[in-house]
Amino acid sequence: MMKLEICCYSIEDIKTALHHGVDRIEFCAGRSDGGLTPSYGDLLQLSQLNLPIAIHPIVRPRGGDFHYNQTEINTIINDIKLIRELNFAGVVFGALTPNGHLDLKTLAKSICAADGLSMTFHRAFDVCKDPFTTLDLLDDLGFDRLLTSGQQSIAINGLDLIQRLNERSKTITVMPGSGVKSHNLKQFIISGLTEFHSSATKTIPSPMQYLNPDVCMSHCQNDESIRYTLDIDEINKMKMIMANNGG
What's in the keyword line of the UniProt record (predicted)? Predict the structure, then answer.
């Protein structure tokens, strides 16, 4: 059975995704950083809604690389424990050593903290040194799925590696993500993949009537006169393609 996971950056987007047949949610903050740990306030509010869909928050304390110091590791462990205590279905995390291998010590602590949650290893995989050995280790560690772009900026360019990883995996599900959209979804389906990760976003105008053109609050190349929201039409197109097995 094919599944569509949508990456959501707000509770409102999660509610929207729920009503349009999405199978699972990855919940993130920090869009411009590629996904960071959501706030306690968001996690608590979301857990209290008790929505009938699997929600997997990401645990990533900052942007940039995936090698963490002890303070960051402590934060990761505490956040995973919180996510478990709030009864989320799963969690998304990962960690590497400076030489691009799995940080097995940190992962062991994280897996212990997850204690039965469904576990996804995030796109730290895409900057690891040896993808095949890393996949084997993730399989042995008990991860349920691997989110990957095939070590390319967008998944369609990494499809060959993604397909080879999928053929090699024992129990872990290889899930392509990064630029997976309705216009290329068929190529992933015919390659034998069964789960797909997409942001499925569009831009909308900011409701702000006044914007100071001399000030930027994040990266100055970002357009702060727009916001991002789910593209319902894109989600519906992807679900239709999946229902038709890529046809």
Answer: Cytoplasm
Integer-rounded Cα Rg, in Å, for the chain is: 18
Helix, strand or coil, per DSSP, at residue 135: helix
CA distances from 119 to 55, 83, 134, 147, 228 (A): 11, 12, 15, 11, 27
Q: Which amino acid is at 109?
A: K
For residues 96 and 128, the answer to whether their CB atoms sit within 8 Å is: yes
Task: Specify whether the CB–CB gap between 188 and 180 falls below 8 A.
Answer: yes
Q: Mind listing the domains of the chain with CATH numbers?
A: 3-245 (3.20.20.380)
C-alpha distances in Å from residue 66, one per residue of 60, 102, 243: 8, 10, 36
pLDDT tens-place string over residues 87-96: 999 999 999 9
Question: For residues 145 and 25, what is the distance between their CA atoms, to the nearest angstrom?
Answer: 14
State the burial class of residue 125 (Cβ atoms within 10 Å of its Cβ: 0-12, 13-18, 19+).
buried
pLDDT tens-digit readout, 184-238: 999 999 999 999 999 998 887 878 778 777 777 766 566 667 788 899 999 999 9
Q: Using CA atoms, how far apart are residues 193 and 197, in angstroms rounded to an integer?
A: 11
